[in-house]
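Worked example 3. Consider a protein that binds guanosine-5'-diphosphate.
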Amino acid sequence: MKLAMIGFGQAGGKVVDRFLDYDDRTNSGIVRSAIAVNTAKADLMGLDRIPQENRVLIGQARVKGHGVGADNELGAEVAEEDIDEVQNAVDSIPTHEVDAFLVVAGMGGGTGSGGAPVLAKHLKRIYTIPVYGLGILPGTDEGGIYTLNAARSFQTFVREVDNLLVFDNDSWRSAGESVEGGYSQINEEIVRRFGVLFGAGEVQAGQEVAESVVDSSEIINTLSGGGVSTVGYASEEVDLTASSGGLLSKFTGGSGGGGDDGLDAANTTNRITSLVRKAALGRLTLPCEIDGAERALLVLSGPSDHLNRKGIERGRKWLEEETGSMEVRGGDYPREIPEVSASILLSGVTNVPRIKRLQQVAIEAQDNMEDIQAESEDNLEDLVQDDTEDLEPLF
Ligand code: GDP
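Given these inputs, the predicted complex is written out as structure tokens:
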């Protein structure tokens, strides 16, 4: 499907930048337009791919291009005050060629955390196409203020978008690696996971279209109904030269598309079934219990002779049983790459212990900050006043 992506804040801008790079590399054609919005001039300058004219600096009157310093209330205020400047950039998007907006932001900071929900609300008021959010949760080691920001932004962002896709930095940190050091790898993971998914609804010119190919409307229907989504992914290398459909399907009279009989078809089906399980039970972009997900979409991607209908059907049935959902869609995304992958979008997830923990820590941080603030006046008084009160201020 074709998206208009708007990266809000530093993380948002960097991720959209990487999406453009991914699009070029894979010829996926998912980013129709890309915009970056920030209160920090330096962050906008640090982007590589987003066109200069699509980089919008907001809040100059308030913060003079220096950012909002992790104050997401200020981030939200500034976004509201300067929404016309963002709209000017959005005006350049040919929205009739776009299936949806995707507003991307790190939820732990200030600009994106506060601004992204404001922008989503604005876009929803003006446009009829869906507005999705891609929200990035901070690592648990980032500290109380980031957790509090994220918890408050999460509540607001979910309410303002048609669906909030979540990526949790915390569960993607490689062992022994700080989140900061690992952003480039993490960002690559983000664009790969969401790229395969959104790319599925985008058929390239000259590409053969099987009837089981996933269409944008299936992605949109899976996301409609709102709530929170997570994505699972698993892949396996395959040999493009020893294409399975080739010889065997000729002998068995199959017409490509993997054929549904013969030993190779059985291998293909088994590979797909185990990839589906790995994708659903492995690391999700937002870790959660998949039981209770309201809707799901299974996308099988790879060379067309390595995909078959039976595999997708089995995968879909298995997902229905595991999630308890009656709305599990599935289809192909044929790509001539030496890899078969299963991508699973779980939409409307509700059993998410990670969010409950985030909220608990946020409440503790909020209480602590209030206590500290309440004590600070007394403490300062104690510090400034000499014990015997012999000294007098000048005036
Ligand atoms: P803002 O510019 O004020 O919106 O704040 P940032 O985007 O710099 O940071 C917000 C949060 O996003 C941080 O707490 C990190 O958790 C996360 N973050 C920052 N940069 C990146 C990035 O490049 N990739 C990812 N995945 N997360 C990031």
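Take a moment to read the result before moving on. Residues 244-262 have pLDDT under 50 and may be disordered. DSSP finds 13 helices and ten strands in the chain.
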